[in-house]
Amino acid sequence: MKRFTNEGHILICFDFDETYFPHACTPEQLASVRRLEDFLEQYSHRLSTMWVTGSSLKSLREKVEQANLRFWPHRIASSLGTELYHIDVDGTFSLEESYQALFPSDFISRVERVASQIEQMRIELEAQPGFGTSPWIRSYYIRDQIGSWSETLRMLADQEGIAVNISQCNPQAGDPMDAWDIDFYPIHAGKESSVRYVCTTVSFLRKETYAFGDSGNDLGMLAHVGKGYLVSNATEQAKQMYPEMTTKPYAEGILEVLESDLSSFI
Asked: Where in the numbering of this chain does the Sucrose phosphatase-like domain appear (predicted)?
């Protein structure tokens, strides 16, 4: 699969699952994705695209095949923004190794210390599918907990010098019902950090950068850029925490924004 042909000076960032890629993959949804791809290819001389996702690269490839997508973006920040890839026009992937240079070598040990303390508090951490496949992220589910456990978890992660994302699970993306998504990753990684790194190193203007997402782990990225939006199918937790939202879901919501702003980048 090839990449969008050209590359412009306006960065557009997409969460993948349930934003760019609809898990239901209905014919109507996929038709909207095709229209979005056509739009991004038509204006690729003005735009630079980036998928910023919690999915691993392996999982992304499977979903790309499932939806029969036609184009790779210019960059992918996978595994919750802990792995950053640049993609050449012929579809060749190159890992941005300098991005990971700031990550602590003892990251896994730090996570294990936090996990041990949490479990001593009788809070069960359930390893998510794919646990351990990436050296820079450890993801768990927590179910049916009440009280101030989230504040304690953030405090313990902060003491170890690592970051943690805590967001309500989205069953539409394959998560369990009534559970919380817990992701540990290095402080200099994550969705927001990967976007900040790309803006800085490639000289994209933050105020002109777009981002689209659907859940709590997208909110930092949306707030960081000049033009951040939740799509209308976003989780209720995300909608309560972030004000800017499209009126349409998935690709239709993305196109709603980009087509209305067309004059600003043609």
From this structure: 10-258
